[in-house]
Amino acid sequence: MENYIDRVTINPNICNGKPILRGMRITVATVLEYLAAGESVENILNAYPILEPEDIKACLEYAKKV
After folding, report:
1. Burial class (CB in 10 A: 0-12, 13-18, 19+), 55
2. What's the Cα-to-Cα distance from 24 to each of 13, 37, 39, 40, 44, rounded to whole Å?
3. How many CB atoms neighbour CB 28 within 10 A?
4. Overall pTM surpassing 0.70 (yes/no)
């Protein structure tokens, strides 16, 4: 089983050091806010085609650990 949380990175030079996905300028908070608002994983992936389903899982795993 892949450790999805490894997809979450923190770089002080990207998005003011907020947790991001795979070094991209998409924050974990953004994905979690979409999910909290009731968006489906499919809609999030359509809105951000660069994301992968594993990125969504990584955000949820990260949220559980912090």
Report:
1. buried
2. 11, 22, 21, 21, 15
3. 24
4. yes
Q: Which domains does the chain have, with CATH numbers?
A: 4-65 (1.10.10.10)
Residue by residue, pLDDT tens for the chain (66 residues) are 468 889 999 999 999 999 999 999 999 999 999 999 999 999 999 999 999 999 999 999 999 998
CA 18 to chain centre: 11
Integer Cα distance of 25 and 18 in angstroms = 10
CB atoms within 10 A of CB 65: 8
